[in-house]
Amino acid sequence: MSHDQVRSDIPQTRAERRLREREGTVLARGNIVSGGSIVLRRGNIVAGPGGAVLRRGSAATGCGDAVPGRADTVLRRGGAAAGRENTVSAQRSGRSVKATPAATSRAGALRRGRSIRAVTAFLIVPGLVGVFALPAYAVGAGVGANAASSSHFNRTVAEAQEVIVSGQVADPAISRDSYTAITKADADHAARVAETARLAAARAERVKQVRATTVHVPGDDYPWWDQLPDTYGGGLSPLNYFYRECVDFAAWRLNRDVGSTSPPFRFVWANLASGSAYMWLSAWRHHGWPVSSTPIVGSVAWFPYNHVAYVQAINSDGSVNIEEYNWGSNHTYGRRTIAASDATYLYPPPG
Question: What's the confidence (pLDDT) of residue 351?
Answer without folding.
Answer: 72
